[in-house]
Write a structure and sequence with these properties.
Shape: globular
Order of helices and strands: EEEEHEHEHHHHHHEHEH
Radius of gyration: 19 Å
Number of domains: 2
Strand content: 15-25%
Low-confidence stretches: 1-7, 326-332
Number of strands: 8
Strand order of the largest sheet: 1-2-4-3-5-6-7-8
Helix content: 25-40%
Number of helices: 10
CATH class of the largest domain: Alpha Beta
Largest sheet: 8 strands, mixed
CATH superfamily of the largest domain: Alpha/Beta hydrolase fold, catalytic domain
Amino acid sequence: MDHRSDQKRNITALYPPIEPFDQRMLDVGDGHSVYMEQCGQQEGEPVLVLHGGPGGGCSPMLRRFFDPEHYRAVLFDQRGCGRSRPHAEIAQNTTWDLVADIERIRIALGIDQFTVFGGSWGSTLALVYAITHPDRVKALVLRGVFLGTNAELDWFYRGGAAQFFPDAWARFIALIPEAERIDPIAAYNRRLFSGDTADEMRFGGIWSSWEHALASVHSDGSRVTAPLDYARAFARLENHYFMNGCFLESDGWILANRHVIEGIPTHIVQGRQDMICPPVSAHRLAEGWPRSALHLVPAAGHAISEPGITQKLLLIMDDLRNGQNSRRITAV
């Protein structure tokens, strides 16, 4: 097949649904087992897919950004979420545990280097993994950049985004006493880890709805519901990581260590109207990095399903497949 000719496929559309050729549970120690799958070509070019959250889990949609005739896509549910077990568990669940899990997966599969594809929290984990193991990363493709800083958490959980979605914010803090609203992350921590599963599910649903309601540029801030068991795990894991500064050694750790990965070709796809992870983080990450390309997508929010973001990610992966490295562009 001539991969430089896409006449047979609408390049703005996802690749057709695909089933994994390999699915397994990997014992990573500490009482955790993570679900892992491989899709596409068994001997194809490896790409590691990192989901968001923390706690989001993988979805079948994430398989469809990669030409199945070329790529060997590796997906896994990070500790405590999706099909990984134990569910919603925070013990021995840190950024550094996840980095170690990626290495276990790489070694188990006999892969020397990945292209690492991650969005939102997945972009954070991709960057931390690359800084820790730069020789194992062929390229980075990042979406909706989150650098794990206090400023980003202040924006989303301490009143910044509330200025644009006051109705959704009002629902988010409605059950939190006035005296605790100065730090909603800490307030939710007390409730998400109360030991009362029903109460944890209730507050997990509210926490998750706040984030999901702001994911799309088309959102009107309406309540977004998710299965309560999923919402509880998602909220507990996010809150656990955010209470601990994403387990990074210092605020701004990723930018302070960016020099380690400046030789890795990197594409950064960012919705210009992203209300969850504002574009300033993506801009700071790319600024002064010659081997990075920042793609600011107009009329797009945070979600990978935003049409402009989907299209740009597909084009980048097809360009990388074809051996092309797109020039720096700031809009599509």
